[in-house]
Amino acid sequence: MPEGRIVKALSGFYYVADEGRIYSCRARGLFKKKDAKVNPLVGDWVVYDVINEEEGYIMEVGERTNELVRPPISNVDQAVLVFSMYKPMFSPLLLDKFLTHTEHAGIDSVIVLSKADQVSEEEVTEIVKKYEAIGYRVIPTSTVDERGVEDVREILRDRISVFAGQSGVGKSSLINMLFPGVSLQTGDVSQKLGRGKHTTRHVELIPLAGGGYVADTPGFSSLEFIDFSELDLAESFLDFADRSSECKFRGCLHVSEPACAVQAALEAGEISEQRYEHYKQFREELKEYQRRNKPW
Ligand SMILES: Nc1nc2c(ncn2[C@@H]2O[C@H](COP(=O)(O)OP(=O)(O)OP(=O)(O)O)[C@@H](O)[C@H]2O)c(=O)[nH]1
Ligand SMILES: [Zn+2]
Question: What are the binding positions for Zn(2+) in this chain (predicted)?
């Protein structure tokens, strides 16, 4: 039986793309995966049975490499985190928070610094160096002087990407410059829900000229530490995770434990004090979230 990828889900139909064709498919109930039953998700690889040239039935859902909740989508290859250098101002706190969420979800991140034309080279370089040192790809871009735009096209090719970033950072401008006619839904989910109308979340993978897909809805609209344990949070800081095997205690949270390699690296200036401050702040947010959501 043929295999394809779900690129859209709407009103009980799954749209499966296979070799340039789209089949609208029904699914027969839920699918058993290990011990749980799953609903097919946009992004899933599926085995389907062909009814005719336009219709089919989903027979089997393939293993997922990852799974996002907001928007509901699986097998995402990368998150493109768009942060503007100016209006809105670059926020290292927000970037670090996004990174904890992408790491926790098991999704690679590429950092795009938009509106680089609005600030000095030095300001851009400082941020590039800092995040490259942690291990992230950082691409300064501008839709005004077009720097970095081709690099973004390159990273999108043949991958499934989810854009993320605050409203107004320039996600739509960038995508539109690269792929005229491709537009993202607005990033402001709360506003949309507030209007009470289109409350059903619908996601679609938009095929890009040259190969690859981009989700039409920005990802990570909720940045609460849902489903994070304290250790998950520590592990979502890649610069900490790199060193934690040298901490004396397994499961070290790098706070007040003796012989902690992360604290040693912090004192040696190898880990940024700002990153560590953010870590401590997120720990407080996580504890606050857990207090509010106690099961009893
Ligand atoms: N100077 C400068 N302005 C830019 C650049 N990219 C986008 N802008 C401007 O920034 C504003 C916001 O851009 P959008 O593309 O709408 O931002 P967005 O991230 O899609 O915003 P939402 O749809 O609210 O999520 C617009 O006025 C753009 O013209 C850039 O590289 N340089
Ligand atoms: Zn430690």
Answer: 247, 252, 254, 260
Cα 269 to Cα 88: distance, rounded to the nearest angstrom: 29
**Going by DSSP bridges, is the β-strand pair 137-140/108-114 parallel, antiparallel, or unpaired?**
parallel
142 CA closest ligand 1 atom index: 31
pLDDT tier at 186, thresholds 50, 70, 90: low
- 188 burial class (0-12, 13-18, 19+ CB within 10 angstroms)? middle
Which pair of tokens denotes residue 228?
């994070």
105 and 184 in a single domain? The answer is: yes
Domain annotation covers residue 220: no
Q: Which residue is closest in CA terms to ligand 1's atom 12? A: 168
Domain of residue 21, CATH code: 2.40.50.140
pLDDT tens-digit readout, 34-44: 656 788 999 99
ipTM confidence:
0.97
* End-to-end alpha carbon distance in the chain: 48
Closest ligand (CA of 87): 1
Residue 165 counted as an annotated binding residue: yes
Question: Do 57 and 77 reside in the same domain of the chain?
Answer: no
Average pLDDT over residues 54-76: 92
Distance, CA 95 to ligand 2 centroid (Å)? Answer: 23
Provide the CATH number for the domain around residue 139.
3.40.50.300
For residue 196, the model assigns a pLDDT of: 41
Distance 154 CA to ligand 2 centre (A): 37
User: Which of 89, 142, 173 to probe ligand 1 with, by most ligand atoms within 8 A of CB?
Assistant: 173
Q: Are residues 48 and 103 in the same domain?
A: no
Supply the range of the domain harboring residue 40: 3-63
CA of 115 to the centre of ligand 1 (A): 8
**172 marked among binding-site residues:** yes
Q: What is the number of structural domains in the chain?
A: 3
The mean pLDDT of 246-256, rounded to a whole number, is 96
Closest CA to 187 of 78, 81, 74: 81
Q: For residue 245, tell me if it sits in a domain.
A: yes
